[in-house]
């Protein structure tokens, strides 16, 4: 049995746009919030800063916790290949220390093909995970911190 994995994610919003990593799979493009897995002995905020350097090539200032999401692979449309995955993701409000001319991470994820600013009102038109965050970000309302097992 695989252990439960913790992951720290950055919610970076500026000028009504959110910064996301662009990824590609057999179904086309999809978008994720920058961030990734926590290593043993590493605080979530440290993991998030490290992962943002790797994925977007930028240092971030980590602010407060916004949301917690669980992803239990066997319960979702990707169960075929995600069956053993159980991940708990912690979404933090962040800001970029500096805005670069272009985004180039030092170690992007395997399926990552880029980094893009996406207008909040356009999030419904793309495949973004977790999708449950889309209306919360668009409406800028106070939402429950725990989102549950969602894709």
UniProtKB/TrEMBL annotation:
Cofactor(s) the record lists: Mg(2+)
Xref: InterPro entries: NUDIX_hydrolase-like_dom_sf, NUDIX_hydrolase_dom
Keywords: Hydrolase
Pfam family, one: NUDIX
Keyword match Repeat: no
Nucleus as UniProt keyword: no
Record domain Nudix hydrolase: where: 3-141
Lineage: superkingdom: Bacteria
Name of the featured protein: NUDIX domain-containing protein
């Amino acid at each position: 049995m695989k252990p439960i994995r913790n992951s720290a994610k950055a919610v970076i919003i500026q000028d009504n746009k959110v910064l996301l990593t662009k990824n590609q799979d057999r179904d086309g493009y999809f978008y994720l919030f920058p961030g990734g897995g926590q290593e043993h002995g590493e605080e979530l905020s440290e993991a998030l800063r490290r992962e943002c350097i790797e994925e977007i090539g930028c240092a971030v200032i980590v602010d407060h916790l916004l949301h917690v999401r669980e992803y239990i692979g066997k319960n979702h449309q990707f169960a075929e290949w995600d069956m053993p995955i159980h991940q708990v993701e912690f979404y933090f409000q962040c800001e970029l220390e500096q805005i670069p001319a272009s985004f180039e991470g030092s170690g992007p994820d395997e399926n990552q093909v880029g980094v893009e600013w996406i207008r909040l009102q356009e999030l419904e038109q793309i495949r973004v995970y977790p999708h449950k965050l889309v209306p919360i970000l668009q409406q800028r309302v106070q939402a429950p911190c725990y989102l549950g097992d969602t894709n």
